[in-house]
Amino acid sequence: MKRNMSYSPRTVFILTAMSLSPVLIGQSLPSSEILHELHKLKTVGSVLFVAAHPDDENTALLAYLAQEEKLDTAYLALTRGGGGQNLIGSELKEGLGLIRANELFQARKLDGAKQLFTRARDFGYSKNPEDTLENWQEEKVLGDVVYAVRSFKPDVIITRFNPAAGPTHGHHTVSAQLALKAFSLAADSTQFPEQLEHVGIHQAKRIFWNGYGRRGGGGLSSEKREIVELEIGKYNPYLGTSYTEISARSRSMHKSQGFGRAGSRGGQLERLVLLEGAAAEGDFLNGVDTSWKRFPDGEKLNDLLEKAIGDFDFAAPWKTVPELAKLDALMEALPESKLTRSKRAALHRVIIASMGIHVQARSENSYLTPGEDVVLEVELVNRSPVGVTLRSLEARLFDSDQWPASIGLERIEKLNKSLEADRVENVELGFKLPADVPLTQPFWLKTPPDAGIYHFENERLLELENVPSPIEVTAELEIEGRVIPLSVPAIERVSDPIKGEVHKIVAIRPELVLAADSAVTLFEDTKPKWIEVSVTSNVGDQSGSLNVIAPNGWTIEVENPDFALTKRNPSAVIGVTVTPPEEGSEGLLSFHATNAKGARFELGSQPIDYEHIGRQAILSKVQTKLVRLDLKRAGNRIACIVGVGDTIPETLQRIGYEIDRIPVEEIARERLVGYDTVILGPRVFDAHAGLDKRFDELLAYVEAGGTVISQFNTTSFRTKSSFTAPYPIKLSRDRVSEEKVEMRILQPDHPIFNIPNRIVKGDFDNWIQERGLYYASSWDDSYASLLSANDRGEPARDGGLLVAQYGKGWYAYTGLSFFRQLPEGNAGAIRLFVNLISLGHGN
């Protein structure tokens, strides 16, 4: 829907420039860092680093390029990483992608680089470039990489991975291949000509591969190519740390992947292998003018910078502001470009930091709704003797369909308020949110994605280096005759008794938000089940009714569909009884609420709240998947040693098992004797220290007649416990990543495939993302290998399901991706897992 935009060309420039730069939440910097930022202003070159996923980036090299070489540095991650695993929570797919994207933004705040993405979706492990290109719809993602080159305009491009195909993730290889193609295509006006409305063609000087040793792959590393070496382990006295120490802090932001790192000190050599472009002759920037001389009047600008640096007073950094104001005037007169906009925004940040200026825009509530009356209290403090005049305040709202334009909410002109030194000024900014205001939603999720690609029509979103806050307030400050814009997000400020001051970014939510207590409800027989649906008001004084729509063959009874909510944030809980059909069936139970005005609300919120990335959420229609299973069970009491991102216990509870979660330190034969089966969750040895030390207790339990199911574990050297089994098993990185390949049953008469449920080929239909991972590559003859599968063009992988008798009991190791299938309600995977649980109990 088109919305009225109220903006002047000047305002659009300010908002665009600020949106392309990190939002200033805390505006203060110590003097040494201010001086460092001044030195960085002297360099006007840029470099683009390209790889496939969050955590693929070389954070040490990024820190070195941004802080030592002082280049405008960006990391282009082709995907947001939703196809991986999650070490800190249960989120997978789009929820995990949102976490990992925000981990990248936080990492960039530490190493000083910027962050870009394409529309490619991480669809899981891919063993070859052909599979990746097919899923990514090659031309679309190639176009996005070309757009990134044209918009960022790097002097040099660096790929993390080898463009020659080799034994690595297909996403990795393709990221380098597309970067290599884009190196040339970005300079060709006949390629992707529709982009030229917004970005001009660009030819980078050269493109390197940042690889050596184990990342060689293919034949590229054996070719005679020019190599440039960089010493990146240097210490930066302005920052009080080395680039390798910065790298460790930056990489440790990838907490969902367990990539916390300890800092290293001393020399570290990086090698750049020239792929295409002009000869480097030992200097990766050879022939690139990184001085202001590349612009008209550049020498004058550089002289002013040198004077500001020479006159810098650590005890009074504000004394340089008059020179910096003159610099701003010179930069404004330069030809418009991405680089000059970036440098001018950086200059503004230095001016603000030199004066200790603080601006904060506070709302009473962090959840606002369409049509709501809003009052923001804007606090401003000038902590320097330099004169500052507040000229205007403006609140604008991010709309991904219109970006870089935005929706004007309220603007107060001609305030002409003098901000005296150390005096707090408060200004109220009131407005009414439009009734059709866009809800806060990650823009790449507003339209359902395909398997390998996200959909959004506004190509300019590819330029975003951060996701703008839903509502931003811009203060126009006159300093030394220059108007300096300072944009801050609207927040709710909370005083937490433990954490202290906490900021919650304001978000736009529906008036009513729904939530079902289960995304999947499983029925192992015809008995009805109870589902609870909550209706929460984000405004108060909401009454209405809940509507429930059942799939064919299912019957429902809503206990009391009406609700009346008189305050903001309370919830009404409404019960729904669901009765399944006699035969196996699947369908979606849909919910929506209708308020007294007849407005319909069908969205729920998936909250994602981790301290290192802040509060996030994904809005989606509220539905419960109903699955009527043809299922029999043997054994009932289960002990779970919970693994990484492990929601299998919840799934098993839904089909009637009694589940106890047992900490590692409580594993003992006497403690386990009352359980029919013990389940070790995915990556449990990775996640829990001491499990290998307690494994003898598990073996004693098995020997006495118990059953243990051990799910996949990685081969990483950083596991907290060593993988252990009753008989030798050697784990590998082998996997079957194509979720539709044939699963061959090797021993059809084995109890696993017959008792209590008959397993047939159809039970392997509709699996998602993969068949399995971290298969065993060799094993003792005591094990029976029960399933075989392989990706196209690969040998059979028979180590995905191994079962052995040990004493009177049973032990099973499985690399099958039950952790993805069971929470999705995949009937065949559930039946097979139940048979594993049932080993030794009536079969």
Number of domains: 4
- Structure summary, number of beta strands: 43
The CATH architecture of the largest domain would be: 3-Layer(aba) Sandwich
Kindly state the mean pLDDT as a whole number? 93
Given the helix and strand composition, which structural class is it?
alpha/beta
Number of helices: 17
Shape by Cα distribution: globular
Sheet with the most strands, sense and barrel status: 9 strands, mixed
Distance between the termini: 61 Å
The top-level CATH class of the largest domain is Alpha Beta
Rounded to the nearest angstrom, the radius of gyration is 29 Å
Helix content: 10-25%
Question: What can you tell me about this protein's structure?
Answer:
21% of the residues lie in helices and 28% in strands. Helix 10 runs antiparallel to helix 11. The strands form ten sheets. Strands 10, 12, 13, 14, 15, 16, 17, 18 and 19 form a nine-stranded mixed sheet that branches. The chain contains 17 helices and 43 strands. The protein is of the alpha/beta class and 843 residues long. The longest helix is centred in the N-terminal third of the chain and has 19 residues, at 93-111. The chain is globular.
